[in-house]
Amino acid sequence: MISIAIKKWSFYDRITGPWGRSAVIGVPMVFLLLVFLFPFLVVFKISLSEMDTVFFKDILTWADGVVDLRLKVGNYLSLAEDSLYIQTYLSSVKFAAITTAICLLMAYPFAYFMARSPADKRPALLMLVMLPFWTSFLLRVYAWKMLLADSGVFNNLALAMGLISEPVKMMNTPFSLVLGMVYTYVPFMILPLYANLAKMDLRLLEAALDLGATPWQAFWRITVPLSKSGIIAGSMLVFIPCVGEFVIPELLGGPQTLMIGRVLWDEFFSNNDWPMAATVAVVMVLLIIVPLALFNKYQAESNSGGRA
Amino acid sequence: MKINAGRVTSRVWMGAVFLFLYLPIFTLVVLSFNGSPMVTSWGGWSLRWYQELARDTEIINGFSLSLEIAFLTACSSVILGTLAALALHRFKRFPGRTLFAGMVNSPLVMPEVIIGLSLLLMLVSVQRMFGFPERGLGTIWLGHTLLGMAYATVVVQSRLQELSPQMEEAAQDLGCRPLQVFFLVTLPLISQAIGSAWLLTFTLSLDDVVLSAFLSGPGSTTMPITIFSRARLGLSPSVNTVATLTVAVVSMGVLAASILISRAERRRAAEMAAAYRAS
Amino acid sequence: MATNSNSKPAVAATGDAPFLQIKRIVKKFDDVFAVDEVSLDIQQGEIFALLGSSGCGKSTLLRMLAGFETPTSGQILLAGQDIVGLAPYERPINMMFQSYALFPHLTVWDNIAFGLRRDGMPKNELEARVTQMLDLVQLKAYSKRKPHQLSGGQQQRVALARSLAKRPKLLLLDEPLGALDAKLRERTQLELVGIIEQVGVTCVMVTHDQEEAMTMATRIGVMSEGKILQVGKPAEIYETPNCRFVADFIGSVNLFKGSVEVDEPDHVIIATPECKHYVSHGITGTAGMAVHVGVRPEKMTIQQTPPRDDERESLAEVGFNIATGVIEDLAYLGSLTTYHVKLETGVIVKVTHTNDARHNATQLTWGDKVVVWWCGSDVVVLTR
């Protein structure tokens, strides 16, 4: 690893010229390697170790001229065998997908209407969308606890108005979980969609209408395909973090809402089983690796393709 | 007829989403003035929870720690993020660029539990080997910087892409060495983006729960951690008060910023129009 | 302030070493030759225009002069010094960018003073120089303004002042009038030349606009696909193009394809399907050679009756340089009329006629049968 770093460094040096290229690339690169990549390698290694020997016994030992590689794949096996884990992973993906879909349905018309608003109103609208984002998300999720609880605001109001005779159970259910996640992540869906739709050339739609398309057809055949990159970006920005969400399931979820983020937390903080937590994390990363790659590809394209 | 229907749908839909977004905030604010500690009953308008907040040392200490960390995070994120944005924007080919871009962008979406766990495990390994670092302010700062850097890079990079490359070439043509080009021309032009990135990462750090929980040590409990543990146990009026204060501060800040910006924009537009007419 | 722009300053005698020597410059991007073995000699004090359509390599060449691109091979000598290895900020060259690239966060004064400050010029000298530049472009009253408070024409003048402030040995202009609208362009062309001549700096400019090049430059280099096709004064390029591309690129030209019938030292006869051409000068070539004959539209005369023999340039031309046809299209442009005449072979020639009388008795119109003729001295023979 060190030798790779040195090789990279000398390459930078040779072509550095007057730009100090090595510093500009090198500093963030080294930081990221140490703080982002290296920890993943540590996690992977730990997932293959025993808890009590996680640091004291290396997985690779050398004795009597024999190299001994001890990989405890037991963690992975127990993960695969335990149906609860598998269920939790699937459940997390399911909830993340539902949240993404609802966010998209909610955000797309919103972003569309916002992009079609008069230009001078748009900054104000954007600000109004961003304002909750700047206010602590933890506090806002907590607020839903107050609203949805059995003795919470909604139930109290409904009871007082005579709409229901006893409290409706809304809290600690899949409903409250999805509601909380949609609530938290909908701005993440709105922003890329809005950015994309605002930049769209309206003349394309005018051309479509001129050529005989109805507004509905023009929408589906022109607007939606052109906003594809915004849809993908927004979806990834919602789906991937939702898979591993912890705070919202913890505050608003319940026994029916199995989320892998909570499992990881519990393995680490409650069971103190670090290798198991590490294993859960590795499998979670594998689960999101495809959407993650998609997201990175989109980022790279939008950064280079945007400019000719 | 069709246009009117469209406009009505537009207003209704947008209004509904705004209602959805703001209802919890509104509830928090109103209930923070509720004399009764329970949501079920209204105990009249009261400031008792604010008075209790003033005596709540746990939250106050947590808040000052969070502020400190947020400040440090914002500074480090902006520096690293600007460097990363420059690297990605200016150098289209260098060994490891794909990896670099992936590492810079991934924290934006990576679940925090994964980042928190992996960072913690690494720090503990390093601690076992070298004796340091102890978990505390520094380690939380490190984790927050990783996250903040990702956001800062996006903000600065998008601004860099708006700049015409001819600006920097002109500076070079007139005699600037590369470092001078950066400080005299590039930096002033991206200064607003850097400012936004600073505020954004500050807010992110102030609000973070998961990373802070994984990376904190004894005595370094941030405010979000305190609030979270209280919220887990049930409903707590102290949370409402903190929320209201936060909303008030943020709203005032955002309002002030947007007024200043729109005033500057209007002035600029007027100047350009005057120049156009005069020519 | 401005000298009569029709009298370009005398170019240095060919005996002196050229001020700017571009020697066999090549620029390759992957497998594509953007600039393919270009060599040019530019004299001190001249305004040299690189003319060509987009993608011909002229901008790449200019950027290599400025230092923003490194040549794949070749030398660039400025006053004898090879500058290829120098960074842009080390060269005594300044460039005026197409988009002006004025620093939006600095005032007009600071923009112009920018380069001088990098050199560490003492305060008094700096102030004097900046004031001098502002006087030169007549923007003294605007020194405190920022670029967005100026009109397009004013911004251009600031850009010019900024690029001249350091008294560079070579001034580069990148499509200087591209960003201006047509009316402003006319006025600015002459103003720009006036200022450059007043300062006396050697100038290389890049443009795709023929009119710009012809108006402003002392010499023009026509470029296509990375190569220089012809270098010469505007009149030389227009009246004696050395190939079909140049003939067609500058203005319009009617081209006839044929072969040499008679090759004499003082005249040549070329046979083409449309007519026989009598060229009243010799050419380097042989009988039987395939050539093109080029005649510019304004050199042709269009009338309904054939010319008398004594109207021709010389009696030897009777029967040559003449064709009949039908007016297929015409465009009345005020000062002149353009006719598209379909000859018997089906080829369409373009003829322009100056409307030098208000009411012309012989008003030609669509469908008229006409005779088109020209003089042997107005013909150009193109061998490639």
Biggest interface: A-B, 96 and 89 residues
The residue fraction in helices of chain A comes out at: over 70%
In quaternary terms, these chains amount to heterotrimer
Largest sheet of chain C: 6 strands, mixed
Q: According to CATH, what is the class of the largest domain in chain C?
A: Alpha Beta
Radius of gyration of chain A, whole Å:
25 Å
The major beta sheet of chain A can be summarized as: 2 strands, antiparallel
Indicate the overall shape of chain A. Answer: globular
Structural class of chain C: alpha+beta
Relative strand content of chain A: under 5%
Mean pLDDT of chain A: 82
Let me know the CATH homologous superfamily of the largest domain in chain C. P-loop containing nucleotide triphosphate hydrolases
Overall, the morphology of chain C is elongated
| Average pLDDT number of chain C | 89
Determine and state the CATH class of the largest domain in chain A.
Answer: Mainly Alpha
Count the DSSP helices of chain C.
Answer: 8
Neighbour order of strands in the largest sheet of chain A: 1-2
Provide the CATH architecture of the largest domain in chain A.
Orthogonal Bundle
* Main sheet: strand order of chain C: 6-7-8-3-9-10
Task: Describe it.
- The complex is a heterotrimer of chains A (308), B (279) and C (384).
- Chain A is mainly α and 308 residues long.
- Chain A folds into two domains: 2-69, no CATH class; 82-304, MetI-like (MetI-like fold, Orthogonal Bundle).
- Helix content of chain A is 73%, strand content 3%.
- Chain A is built from 14 helices and two strands, in the order ααββαααααααααααα.
- A two-stranded antiparallel sheet of chain A has the order 1-2.
- In chain A, a hairpin with a 2-residue loop joins β1 (60-63) and β2 (66-69).
- In chain A, α4 (83-116) runs antiparallel to α11 and α6 crosses α8.
- Chain A is globular.
- Chain B has 279 residues and is an all-alpha fold.
- Chain B has a domain at 54-235: MetI-like (MetI-like fold), CATH 1.10.3720.10.
- Chain B contains eleven helices and no strands.
- Chain B has helices at residues 2-32, 48-55, 57-90, 97-105, 112-130, 137-162, 165-173, 178-207, 210-215, 223-233, 237-278.
- In chain B, α3 (57-90) runs antiparallel to α8.
- Chain B starts with a helix and ends with a helix.
- The model of chain B has no long low-confidence stretch (mean pLDDT 87).
- Chain C has two domains: 20-245, P-loop containing nucleotide triphosphate hydrolases (Rossmann fold, 3-Layer(aba) Sandwich); 254-382, Beta Barrel (OB fold (Dihydrolipoamide Acetyltransferase, E2P)), CATH 2.40.50.140.
- Chain C starts with 19 loop residues before the first strand and ends with a strand.
- Chain C is built from eight helices and 20 strands.
- With 384 residues, chain C is of the alpha+beta class.
- Classes of the chains: A mainly alpha (308), B mainly alpha (279), C alpha+beta (384).
- At the A-B interface, α1, α2, α4, α5 and α6 of A face α1, α3, α4, α5 and α6 of B.
